[in-house]
Write a structure and sequence with these properties.
- The complex is a heterodimer of chains A (about 190) and B (about 525).
- Chain A is mainly α and about 190 residues long.
- Helix content of chain A is about 55%, strand content about 5%.
- Chain A is built from 10 helices and 3 strands.
- Chain A has helices at about 20, 25-35, 50-60, 85-90, 95-100, 105-120, 125-135, 140-155, 160-165, 175-185, and strands at about 5-10, 15-20, 40.
- The termini of chain A are far apart.
- Chain B has 23 helices and 19 strands.
- A 7-stranded mixed beta sheet of chain B has the order 5-6-17-12-19-10-9, with no helix packed on it.
- In chain B, β5 (about 215), α11 (about 220-230) and β6 (about 235) form a beta-alpha-beta unit.
- The longest helix of chain B is centred in the last third of the chain and has 15 residues, at about 485-500.
- In chain B, about 45% of the residues are buried.
- The chains are: A mainly alpha (about 190), B alpha+beta (about 525).
- At the A-B interface, α5, α6, α7, α8 and α9 of A face α5, α6, α7 and α9 of B.
- Chain B: It holds the Pfam family F-box-like.
């Protein structure tokens, strides 16, 4: 185990994780950079249930490139096929050329993406909390996935189903509703209320 | 100058991984005045106007003059401060929270991020569930993405992006744009700021400072000695007098000459005619503008009706022939379009000539990062989260008190601005404008360019060409072939100059940590 970071959740639980895992969060990274005597970082706004989910995500992503935001720039050192052993040969390759042609990299990324999609197939309440935690801790990939997870929950539903999903009140007047449906009747896939 | 988008665009995942682009844009803190009297009457004006088609000319919000018909389509969104001023939650509940249900814990920008993932039908469904989601779901930039992704450049803009989508998607003939519902009692800083930036005109005081040096009819030698070598900006007059473009380039003729040819507009390509239909009608925070590096190839007349001003004719990248990176663009855009802060790619210098209209420029030297701009340490990415208007509203005042103030000017038709390499610049069209800009490499910045191309992360930094890594090799070879000994000559000259001066040169005083700068190394 390399150097570890201690994190304290809002409800007082301590999590000890490797740096590579914790530093997925830009906030934790910058807090750890400052001189911290105990290496103990308090995270008052994240409770233990959410934090453990967040760390699960970070663990999975710790040794992968940032999948959703920097895909094209996978350096060949991270390629599962090359495993760092062919470092000499691949150092002259441009990294984007590498990842565009390397099947092993592509497959690894796709697997990670699939894992991510499963990870956010959870109830909306958890997604909300993940979204807020990812925003607060500034974890790019988790942000991206949680946002997509929330969007996935919305897709394919009708207005009444969405209202149930998010516990929304329909505060339109009947005339207003009619007006809106009229506007959207031009869509090639119009919907019923 | 394409480097604006160089840092801001996401790298593309492979086609099989279909993810929508995630545009993260954090708003800066809005400095709204807290005084109720100043605030309320002006905002009430917005509410009163809701029944009229267009706002009266000269209407104002928060001391900003609004563009004509700025808010006819949009809701009377108010800043969050108003809610506090109007007294407790019972008297005027924020329609926002009431209508969001479980989603209300999300801040506005996150909620909009979620919505960027939705296809049109789902966005429409969502916006019909509650008043609050109607306001969010009809946020026009969301529909802009949908239009551009589905229809590319083949759409006729009708008033708003949402109307455009609906009209274009309809299988029957396009209908007149529908009026959106106006939702009141909706308080949101994010959306209010977005509306404000889309609707206001430039404040006169932002245009007042004009401290650039102006010259007319100077010799090439004087230009090089006084401006190019010391890397200082200048506004040159009288260079465009012989350009046929000055007399011939107006809308009607351009549309005629270019007819069905499509030009690069943001992420898509459009004909001039469709572009003008859009630019006349659009009221956006970040209007699309026409910015095409292949204009002279697409329409030969365009290339033949202008000439490189004499000062910029030594262009060493031209030796790369077809392999040279993109180097010249036609720029057409309405008032409000432009580029937020960036540094030009490949360490080149540039000139920008206004044929019609006028532009406001704000420039900072390489070693000074403009307020509100965050370059990464290696210079590979520049985060300019704010739009041009927002920058002026929130950051412009800050730098006016600095010791090293930016160079500013308004460049009018017939004038040319010289942008020295490495300089940060922001430019905004003050009216409908047509301009030509070129990037180039001359003897003065040859070494900087070579140095830049040699950097270990060149493959990320170098832009405008498909063959990034080999650009250095190709360029060096081309120079050594066509101008043997030039590199040594220039190096010697620089060493001589540095030995003379006691102060460090621009180059030496700049380090890698400040993006846009570079470490000067003796080759």
């Amino acid at each position: 185990m390399g150097k570890t970071i201690k994190l304290i959740s809002g409800d007082g639980e301590m999590f000890e994780v490797e740096e590579a895992v914790a530093f997925q969060s830009n906030i934790i990274k910058s807090l750890a950079d400052e001189d911290n005597a105990d290496d103990c970082i308090p995270l008052p706004r994240v409770d233990s249930q959410i934090l453990s989910k967040v760390l699960e995500f970070c663990r999975k992503h710790a040794n992968s490139p940032s999948v959703h935001t920097k895909f094209a720039a996978i350096p060949s050192e991270l390629c599962p096929k090359h495993d760092g052993s062919a470092a000499g040969a691949s150092s002259s390759e441009s990294s984007s050329a590498h990842s565009e042609t390397c099947r092993a990299c592509y497959d690894a990324v796709m697997k990670l993406v699939q894992w991510d999609l499963e990870f956010v197939k959870v109830d909306l309440d958890l997604i909300h909390h993940l979204l807020k935690a990812a925003n607060y801790l500034d974890i790019e990939d988790l942000m991206f996935m949680a946002v997509e997870g929330a969007a996935n929950a919305i897709r394919g539903n009708n207005p009444e189903e969405i209202r149930k999903l998010f516990d929304l009140e329909n505060d339109f007047t009947p005339e207003e509703e009619k007006e809106i449906l009229k506007e959207y009747s031009w869509l090639d896939d119009p919907f019923e209320p | 100058m394409p480097s604006t988008f160089h840092g801001l665009t996401r790298r593309k995942p492979p086609a099989a991984v279909r993810k929508k682009k995630n545009k993260k844009r954090k708003r800066s803190v809005i400095a709204f005045p807290k005084m109720a009297p100043e605030l309320r009457p002006e905002v009430e004006e917005v509410e009163d106007e809701e029944d009229e088609e267009d706002m009266e000319e000269g209407a104002e919000v928060l001391g900003f003059k609004l563009k004509p018909s700025a808010s006819s389509r949009f809701h009377a969104i108010q800043p969050l401060g108003n809610l506090l001023l109007l007294g407790g939650p019972s008297s005027s509940a924020n329609a926002r929270d009431v209508g969001l249900g479980a989603l209300r814990i999300l801040p506005d920008d996150l909620l909009l991020d979620v919505l960027t993932f939705l296809p049109a039908r789902d966005l429409a469904v969502l916006s019909s569930t509650s008043r609050s989601l109607y306001v969010f779901g009809t946020h026009d930039p969301l529909w802009r993405t949908l239009v551009l992704e589905r229809f590319h450049g083949d759409f006729l803009f009708c008033g708003s992006w949402r109307s455009t989508y609906l009209a274009s998607a309809s299988r029957t003939l396009p209908l007149p744009p529908s009026e959106t519902l106006v939702i009141r009692n909706f308080y949101s800083d994010y959306l209010f700021q977005s509306w404000l930036c889309a609707s206001i005109e430039m404040k006169p005081e932002w245009l007042k400072i004009d401290n650039i040096e102006r010259r007319r009819g100077i010799s090439v030698e004087e230009f090089i000695d006084t401006f190019e070598d010391p890397n200082k900006p200048v506004l040159l007059q009288g260079c465009l007098d012989t350009w046929p473009a000055m007399k011939r380039w107006n809308r009607e003729r351009l549309m005629r000459v270019c007819s069905d040819v499509k030009f690069a507009v943001g992420p898509v390509e459009m004909t001039m005619e469709r572009y003008f239909k859009y630019s006349d009608a659009a009221k956006e925070e970040r209007p699309l503008y026409l910015f095409d590096p292949k204009f002279a190839d697409k329409v030969l007349e365009l290339g033949s009706e202008y000439d490189v001003p004499i000062y910029f004719r030594e262009d060493l990248f031209s030796m790369l022939g077809k392999e040279r990176p993109d180097y010249r663009w036609i720029i057409i855009g309405p008032a409000g379009s432009g580029s937020s802060f960036h540094v030009d790619p490949n360490s080149t210098s540039a000139w920008n000539a206004v044929i019609k209209g006028s532009k406001k420029w704000v420039m900072f030297p390489p070693e000074i990062v403009p307020p509100g701009v965050h370059p990464s340490a290696d210079g590979a990415e520049v985060a300019c989260p704010v739009s041009i208007m927002e920058w002026f509203m929130n950051f412009y005042a800050a730098c006016r008190t600095w010791k090293k103030r930016p160079v500013e000017c308004v460049c009018r038709a017939g004038e040319v601005v010289f942008i020295p390499n490495g300089w940060w610049h922001l430019v905004i069209n003050l009216e409908d404008s047509i301009a030509i800009t070129q990037n180039y490499v001359s003897r003065s910045n040859l070494l900087n360019v070579l140095d830049f191309l040699q950097k270990p992360n060149a493959r990320e930094l170098v832009s405008g060409t498909k063959d990034r890594v080999n650009l250095f090799d190709k360029f060096k070879t081309a120079i050594d072939t066509s101008y043997p000994g030039m590199i040594d000559e220039v190096t010697a000259k620089v060493q001589e100059k540095m030995a003379e001066k006691k102060r460090p040169s621009f180059w030496e005083s700049v380090t890698d940590a400040k993006a846009g700068g570079f470490k000067f190394s003796l080759i």
